[in-house]
Specification:
The structure is a homodimer. By secondary structure, chain A is an alpha+beta fold. Chain A is built from five helices and three strands. Chain A is 54% helix and 14% strand. Chain A has a three-stranded antiparallel β-sheet with strand order 1-3-2. Chain A starts with a helix and ends in a 9-residue tail after the last helix. Chain A binds a DNA duplex through helix 4. Chains A, B: Keywords: Arsenical resistance, DNA-binding, Transcription, Transcription regulation. Chains A, B: This is Metalloregulator ArsR/SmtB family transcription factor. Chains A, B: It comes from Rhizomicrobium electricum.
Chain lengths: 101, 101
DNA sequence: TGCCTATATGCGCTTAAACGCATAGGCGGT
DNA sequence: ACCGCCTATGCGTTTAAGCGCATATAGGCA
């Protein structure tokens, strides 16, 4: 049930929000790339991605030695709408992420 | 800065999200009414409303012995958009709140 | 097999959130 | 002045989040 709570919790951490913003373009990224961009250690990033995955926001795929994450393509429309609004707001307010390469 | 994180944190608690949903109609409600609807104790509700206020989501007004809360009418458009999406999602998914009187 | 890179996870620690209880303060009515 | 209702807050406790460190697991390549 309380999907919204789960979603809000998932996005209430800077690293996780940052990851979501990075993945918002729909493309895949491996953990190591996310680490770089978000200035996170390996275990931290891995765990945060685990939380996002658990929340159903992202899916992962093994590709050789990498694990590539991307936005869950099967998100509920209402969830998608929230994410879209969040991404827009974060982009507008120069939030976190900032300089993305 | 990280307005979005603050917002997400504020909404990642059932009682607070419930309060926001109740106030989403723009009308005022005193703490006691919120307590009733959300099944919360007095101190809990008061504190949660404090968090929402701190986050800038609601404003309060003293009216005799009551303190009436309402959505902050001066919310940033991007924040408003997020809230709107959240309210829609929560309403759709039969989240929390449920039976509002 | 052995080694290197990439990722996940067990463990212990630290910090912050949330709660209940009790109390204080604001306001109205008697 | 006193009492009762409504709300806020200090305090101590419990619970959960997040972190780093070390280690395990998985795949590629020599």
């Amino acid at each position: 049930m309380n999907t919204v709570i789960t979603l809000m919790s998932a996005l209430s951490d800077p690293t996780r929000l940052g990851a979501l913003l990075l993945l918002a373009d729909g493309k895949e990224r491996c953990v190591c790339k996310l680490m770089e961009h978000l200035n996170a250690t390996q275990s931290r990033m891995s765990r945060h991605m685990g939380v996002l995955k658990q929340a159903g926001l992202v899916v992962d795929r093994r590709d050789a030695q990498w694990v590539r994450y991307r936005l869950n393509p099967a998100l509920a429309p209402s969830t998608k709408a929230i994410i879209k609004a969040v991404v827009a707001a974060a982009a507008a307010s120069e939030d976190i992420v900032g300089k993305v390469a």
